[in-house]
Here is the input.
Amino acid sequence: MKNLNIKNNQVTKSFLLFATVLLLIHCTTPKKVKFKDPVDTKDKQITYQAKKTYQFEKLGVWVSNEFEGAHLNGASQINDSIIVLKFNPENIPINKSPYYAFKTWSDTPKQIYFGFDYPEGFEHRYKPKQKLNGNWSIVDSLDLIELDERLLLKLKVDKEPRIIAAQEINASENVRQWYLQNIVASNDFVRVKSVGNTKLGKDMPVLDIYNGNPEGKPIIVLLTRQHPPEVTGYFAFQNFLKTIVDQSELSIKFLNHYRVLAFPILNPDGVDLGHWRHNANGIDLNRDWSKYRQPEVKNVVSFITNTSKEDNGKIVLGLDFHSTYEDVFYTNETRAGTTLPNFIDDWFLLLEKNIEGYKVNEKDSNSNKPVSKGWFLYGQNATGITYEIGDHTPKERIVQIGSTSAKAMMEVLLKENL
Here is the structure.
């Protein structure tokens, strides 16, 4: 009996030691990364929009921001045909890229002019898109009028509510439905996990993708929606990811050798609140990749680094999908001595070869500010790229670039793995 007790105690101690090690692995605070130009990412106060439906009885018109992803701070009638809409950022300083999204309808068909009122110093950036009967389209440029330094949108309204927005709205629930239906449903090698919650309690999903055993597989990280309105980058992410999991011969071979961690929405709070750029704490998440003061970045970095440690998988590549005025790839100058020193040149060469008439627009510089591509370089000695799609790049072009760049990436990385 004494020997049995000794053995039981030894088993108990071994189990406790094992559990403690696992706990330490999961609770380890990720290592901070130094940048030349640090940014203060401590919480800053934001101003919430008042959720409201504005009724203009004499006109028989209604304007509302009572939906996820809306942004409207006020509405006032100027005359019998003009309604001025006010749009303010969640806080300042902030990028001068005003975001707007509102719903409107009327009791009888009529033509209304909507004036866009931005704070002083802010200029119109995004061409209006319209969602009517479930379908999105771009508003005709002939219906946009500049008058007295104010943009007017001429719109025919009726009983059918329509949304007018800077970009197509893809709120957190839309994103969840998309990846469940298009990425997870028919692919048992895609595992949906959570990396934690945001300030407002929203889930932060990650799709963990690989075939077979994850042990030792090099890791590719895909990120998107750090900045809420940057939807064209999200569209490229969608097509990139769909191509990786399409179960083609290339896809199967790739996922036999590599592991992909895909984060489909890093800033669900900001997206659903209709923010111009920041999260619910008033911070640009793509300036927090140093000290991880914001829960979104801390959760993501912790998951990536812990996953790498647990399964001995080296982080080799990070692609962060964004939107800007034009299609462009922002890369790091430092490549020699990194995990994939030749990847960028080989990838871009193949991308240009596979899209007729396409020329990669690359801008290279090492990141001075704490952005994701710098974190991959300085924190992981990996290749980091900010993958930007133009605000108004046609959807067909985004599909082509997203899919072709994913195929080119897989081909290049499989050659690296030989």
Observations:
- The chain has two domains: 53-165, 170-417.
